[in-house]
Amino acid sequence: MIVDAEKMIAIGLVWGITNAIMRRGALIWDKKIQSLASKAHQSSQIHQRVLGYLKNWLNLLLIWQYSVPFLVNLSASAAFFAILSDSPISLAVPVTNATTFAATAVSAMILGEETHVGFALFGTFLIVLGVWICIM
Prior knowledge:
Elements: H1 2-39, H2 46-62, H3 64-84, H4 89-110, H5 117-135
Helix pairs in contact: 1-3, 1-4, 4-5
Membrane topology: Multi-pass membrane protein
Organism: Aquilegia coerulea
Pfam family, one: TMEM234
């Protein structure tokens, strides 16, 4: 049980860290899209709008600052589903989700995003306490 909990915490850490890094990549993509949108005119035909959305999505995947952490995040998701075959879902979901939330908050702070540091650290402490209670 403890080994499974360690795997759940590791997956939550990977998810949380990659969430914060993917946000950075998404911000880069957003700036790129805004600069392109100011140059392009809006189309009203449905097929052109769909093609525009697909092009935007492809542009997002071509930004390595987004796509690399996204692939790592997806790999952690595959590992999570593998763990679910051996662990109770009533333990796996709260532990991984709580760890993800805490890791995202701490990673965002490390990456320099604006946060209320005191609230984030207090919330992270409560999450760690909750995960510890779930595991014990």
